[in-house]
């Protein structure tokens, strides 16, 4: 993937700190009660899970889950297929390179001048086609369709990825049910938002980096969607910004676990009770790393705003409504061209304290 541009050293915002706290850090939650035949008949089990989810979302914005119900063989199959895909020559992978017309597919950082994200990725949509706004213009009500691109090799990649995404989608919606309960809402409160979901899965490959002290696998950021479910290999590299003191905490890989994080949409829905937290990915000199995030996103026509059940005169809405479809389309198109508007963030919709 080339060498790290020395100019990158000057970018202090993205440059990794040298002192990182090695810690188990984020909570580990056992979801086995969800998969037990006694689950429905054991309200105490669900109460414990809801309490653990609530504490994790409030204190960390991240947690890990074990005994989650996703068959291990499906995770192994997608990791094997990902390794085969990324092992191909660059010219082969770039046959399905994403662009403005087809926003999902393969992408690498070979062509960039200042390498910030030291990685290559392959994205695919969970729902095909995925309906989105045709433009970012506020008054444009037209829709367009996004489709997947699939490589010729490995031939099993499509089937493996589609199979995997179905299993992780089930897990994501179960977690959304627990999050709803933790907010004092009905378990199915969020279900309707994902009927026409805009979710997608990403295969990440982080090659060994010749100057790991100068680069990041992914720079510091927050996830714009509802929920992210991440599978990572044994190499690790994910770091979470701890809310209590702003220190970066390395998330050590837990065998057969998923890492879950709250996205911006949940932050808005919960009216800041739960917060989307900054995270980043480190690279290393010797080992390549693979990870597979599942980004759970609602339908494009969703108007994201604080839920009425969670707002009142004492706790007024802290965000103005915004169109998720316009938000997503702007984010995707900004990957390919410089837009007039800056990359949109939820703080752009924050209501000033004076207004309240």
Structural class, by secondary structure, is alpha+beta
* CATH top-level class: Mainly Beta
User: Which superfamily, in CATH terms, is the homologous superfamily?
Assistant: B-lactam Antibiotic, Isopenicillin N Synthase, Chain
CATH architecture: Sandwich
Description:
It is a single chain. By secondary structure, the chain is of the alpha+beta class. The chain has a single domain, classed as B-lactam Antibiotic, Isopenicillin N Synthase, Chain (Jelly Rolls, Sandwich). 22% of the residues lie in helices and 21% in strands. It contains 6 helices and 17 strands. It has helices at residues 43-59, 72-86, 90-93, 157-182, 264-269, 324-333, and strands at residues 21-23, 28-30, 62-66, 106-108, 120-125, 130-133, 143-146, 200-206, 218-221, 227-232, 238-241, 248-251, 258-262, 279-281, 289-296, 303-304, 322-323. An 8-stranded mixed beta sheet has the order 2-3-13-10-15-8-5-4. It has a 5-stranded mixed beta sheet with strand order 1-12-11-14-9, with no helix packed on it. It has a two-stranded antiparallel ribbon with strand order 6-7. Strand 2, helix 1 and strand 3 form a beta-alpha-beta unit. Helix 2 (72-86) crosses helix 4 (157-182). The chain starts with 20 loop residues before the first strand and ends in a 23-residue tail after the last helix. 38% of the residues are buried.
Describe this protein with a few key phrases.
356 residues, alpha+beta, Jelly Rolls, 6 helices, globular
Write the layout of secondary structure elements.
Layout: E1 21-23, E2 28-30, H1 43-59, E3 62-66, H2 72-86, H3 90-93, E4 106-108, E5 120-125, E6 130-133, E7 143-146, H4 157-182, E8 200-206, E9 218-221, E10 227-232, E11 238-241, E12 248-251, E13 258-262, H5 264-269, E14 279-281, E15 289-296, E16 303-304, E17 322-323, H6 324-333
Parallel strand pairs: 1-12, 2-3
Antiparallel strand pairs: 3-13, 4-5, 5-8, 6-7, 8-15, 9-14, 10-13, 10-15, 11-12, 11-14, 16-17
Helix pairs in contact: 1-4, 2-4
């Amino acid at each position: 993937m080339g060498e790290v541009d020395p100019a990158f050293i000057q970018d202090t915002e993205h440059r990794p700190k040298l002192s990182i706290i090695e810690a188990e850090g984020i909570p580990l939650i056992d979801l086995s009660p969800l998969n037990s035949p006694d689950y429905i008949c054991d309200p105490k089990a669900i109460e414990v899970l809801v309490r653990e989810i609530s504490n994790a979302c409030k204190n960390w914005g991240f947690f890990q889950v074990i005994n989650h119900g996703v068959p291990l063989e499906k995770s192994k199959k997608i990791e094997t297929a990902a390794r085969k895909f990324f092992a191909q020559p660059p010219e082969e992978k770039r046959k399905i390179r994403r662009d403005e017309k087809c926003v999902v597919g393969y992408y690498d950082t070979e062509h960039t001048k200042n390498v910030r994200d030291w990685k290559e990725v392959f994205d695919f949509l969970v729902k095909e086609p995925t309906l989105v706004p045709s433009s970012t213009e506020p008054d444009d009500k037209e829709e367009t369709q996004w489709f997947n691109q699939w490589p010729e090799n490995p031939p099993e990649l499509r089937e493996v990825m589609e199979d995997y995404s179905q299993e992780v989608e089930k897990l994501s919606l179960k977690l959304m049910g627990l999050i709803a309960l933790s907010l004092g809402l009905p378990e199915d409160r969020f279900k309707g938002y994902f009927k026409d979901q805009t979710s997608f899965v990403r295969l990440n490959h982080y090659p060994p980096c010749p100057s790991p002290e100068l680069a990041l696998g992914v720079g510091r950021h927050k996830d714009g969607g509802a929920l992210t479910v991440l599978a990572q290999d044994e190499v690790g590299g994910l770091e979470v910004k701890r809310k209590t003191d702003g220190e970066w905490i390395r998330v050590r890989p837990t065998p057969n676990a998923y890492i879950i994080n709250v996205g911006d949409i949940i932050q808005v829905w919960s009216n800041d009770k739960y917060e989307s937290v900054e995270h980043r990915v480190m690279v290393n000199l010797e080992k390549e790393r693979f990870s597979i995030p599942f980004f759970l996103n609602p339908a494009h026509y969703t108007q994201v705003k604080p839920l009425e059940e969670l707002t009142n005169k004492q706790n007024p809405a802290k965000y103005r409504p915004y169109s998720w479809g316009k938000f997503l389309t702007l984010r995707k198109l900004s990957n390919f061209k410089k837009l007039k508007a800056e990359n949109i963030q939820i703080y752009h919709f924050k209501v000033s304290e004076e207004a309240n």
